[in-house]
Amino acid sequence: QVQLVESGGGLVQAGGSLRLSCAASRSIFSINSMGWYRQAPGKQRELVAAITSGGTSNYADPIKGRFTISRDSAKNTVYLQMNSLKPEDTAVYYCNAHVWEVFGWNDYWGQGTQVTVSS
């Protein structure tokens, strides 16, 4: 199992920046991929960015060039640096760990952190 603890959300003006952190309860190299998802009111949860244990990252089109996912293996932590924020980035952001375990793939989620971007 994996426990995930997020931090770093808040209120920011459009054009501003925030950095989200997600601390995992075990080595991130033992987790096949870690990512950030977001869910805005009335919308489905969507992938924002993910990084594999091998270091390959991918990004959703709306945030490409503005957000960067990174990791610190010594701290078992994954980050999401969000720059040039827009009001449409407002959502609850969730950290995800996608893990192959004995009986198949499992997804673990953090508690979510609110990001609000004012215009």
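That was protein one. Protein two is written in the same sequence-then-structure order:
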Amino acid sequence: QVRLVESGGGLVQAGGSLRLSCGASGRISSINTMGWYRQAPGKERELVATISSGGSTYHADSVKGRFTISRDNVKNTLYLQMNSLKPEDTAMYYCAARPRGQTNYDYWGRGTQVTVSS
């Protein structure tokens, strides 16, 4: 089992920045890709960014150039640096982890709320 705990959310004005963190514990060695998802009220959950154990990254078009995903494999922590925040970035942000050899994200955190005011 892997436990994920997000932190760093909050209320920020448009144009501001936040850095989300996700601490991982448990069978960390079983994890390959980690990612950030978000879900706004009344909307489907959407993928924000992913990073492999080797450091390859993906960012959704809606956040490209503004958000940066990174991970510290020594501290077992995933990050999401969010700059130039927009009101449409308001959502609950979830950390997720995908085990090696699996296609689905089996492990999820409980989420951290990000609210961007205009």
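The two ends are 40 Å apart (CA to CA). Keep this in mind for the problem set.
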